[in-house]
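Following the same procedure, backbone shapes were mapped to integers, as reproduced here:
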Amino acid sequence: MLRKLLLVSTVSLLGFSCLFAQDKKPEQKFGWMKSVVANLNFTQNQFDNWTQGGEDSWAWQGTIDGKINRNAPNFKWSNSGKLTYGKSKIGDTAARKSADEIRFESVYTRKVGIPVNPYASATFLTQLTPGYQYFGDTSKVEISNFMDPGFFTQSVGLDYNPNDNFQTRLGAAVKETFTDQHPKPYADDPATSKIEKTKVEYGATSVTEANVKLNQIILFTTRLDLFSNFEAFNQIDVDWDNTFTANIAKYLTVNFNIRIYYDRDFSKKRQIKQTLSAGLTYTLL
């Protein structure tokens, strides 16, 4: 299954690359470019004497997505941050977390006058509040928290960025995992008797991003993160995030997101998260 997934994703992104490479490269704009976009989605169901059955429910999710980039004749510095949080409630059960992610990334690319340029990057990923595994309606056990785990990845390599709609980079990387109360399965090595709370992995990484405007109102964005430890090249960590965004009105959008995740250290099976939402979008900056 994983091999098929990697094959499909690689062929798709190579197709995007060929498509965008044929576009005429627009005139570059130099200086600082900033953007902050906030999105809030909410759904609610309520039943009163509804003979067909059903339970009251509600769900909400908020996202703040920011970018601060600087483009100069001899370098490009891209910085991005994303905060996502949401909760849902069904019937009489307590509200539960449905989305929680904090991500920051900084990429410095040195322009050397060729299509492929050297880069250095750093990425940080964690969550905001505790995560739980639930047993029934009332029993729960905490399995994660802020910086428990926290992931840091640094890499250096080569970057290909023909235009604003497509970028891919490949390089050597160091990935650090930090934990506190929840070392398993994130950092602890089951082969040793000691419980390790940190883990350092050396490997190769690839990050590919593409934006495709399907029509006047629908935008497709995709990001594929791959990481392979030097100790096991046949085991590749995959984080593939795909979003379709339809701008219905000035501040109203509909989003469909599907995220495919695979890390053998966490689960031997691939993980899939799917979200369909409608809500308000506002550009803060």
Remarks:
- The longest helix spans residues 2-21.
- The mean pLDDT is 88.
- The radius of gyration is 21 Å.
- Residues 19 and 166 are 10 Å apart (CA to CA).
